[in-house]
């Protein structure tokens, strides 16, 4: 059922597009009856779904511009304007498809979060290390976390280590932690293997709580209110009044239907999803993950914004700005040359900054040999 609900907007769009195109092809070949039947079928499809959406909105006590679409589609059937009805149906389907894609983006982010949950751990018992499931870890167990492995549970370090904590904090640079420091599940060991003692089970650890909170936020969030529906309170009565006036003055129902077709909210229903999808895509390209269209729209009402500085307001790449030499010591350029020469073989972000600064100054660097880098000691 859930799979069908996810695919319904795409199916609606494809069917309505095929019916509109099929009717146009039939009309081009002179098969007027076939084109009329095809367009009427598209209109009936759009009318049935619009009635369903309108009834659902009424039951939820929400104003909706879908009622205008219902009247426009019904009017198009009444006066025999199948092509107009088919066009309205296609635009309705396009808007629904774009809204569904915006909502699916948030679900995809949650799935990726869940898939990254640590599944296994390595427990040390004496001289033996056994692989176990993460949910089998108990507080007090001694665990071994290798280079590049995800810390499976919250723990306290028995040996120093360096960790990539970007999954939790957004901080791109590895964080060096000494013996006795607490580490949280979900971070990645960026240095040599470390030993830690578990302080919580997998279900009670930090990463599991993050996944749980994100899931609860999505499950309890307020229903998405389309931008077009915010105009419904004024737009719907005004449209009905103008349509009634056109009918009264002309004495022709065709005039009233024309007003309803022109006032059909398709431009509104399309404009908001297109803008939201463009915004979400643009944000994704620059590394900003937005929960969905509703969250993006809510930003317009925000008055205060809180940002994590590193990697958000800054590039997350340190740069050398000045060099201060000790009195009587080596010249600043020579100190930089020696430090950068040594740092050529280090992956640390600060080392990269020194090498980049030396290269920018045109310093001749020497290639060091027999270098040993010790992580976790600052």
Search tags:
Calcium-transporting ATPase, cytoplasmic domain N; elongated; single chain; alpha+beta; 4-stranded antiparallel beta sheet; Calcium-transporting ATPase, cytoplasmic transduction domain A; 378 residues
Characterise this structure.
- By secondary structure, this protein is of the alpha+beta class.
- It folds into three domains: 2-113 and 236-300, no CATH class; 120-212, Calcium-transporting ATPase, cytoplasmic transduction domain A (Distorted Sandwich), CATH 2.70.150; 317-370, Calcium-transporting ATPase, cytoplasmic domain N (3-Layer(aba) Sandwich), CATH 3.40.1110.10.
- Helices cover 54% and strands 9% of the residues.
- The protein contains 13 helices and nine strands.
- It has helices spanning 2-28, 32-59, 66-79, 82-115, 166-169, 206-220, 232-250, 253-262, 266-285, 293-298, 309-313, 332-343, 349-360; strands at 120-125, 128-133, 142-145, 155-157, 161-164, 175-177, 182-183, 188-189, 194-198.
- The strands form three sheets. It has a four-stranded antiparallel β-sheet with strand order 3-9-4-7, with no helix packed on it. A three-stranded antiparallel β-sheet has the order 6-5-8, with no helix packed on it. A two-stranded antiparallel sheet has the order 1-2.
- A hairpin with a 2-residue loop joins strand 1 and strand 2.
- Helix 1 (2-28) packs antiparallel against helix 2, helix 2 (32-59) crosses helix 4 (82-115) and helix 3 packs antiparallel against helix 4 (82-115).
- The longest helix has 34 residues, at 82-115.
- The chain is elongated.
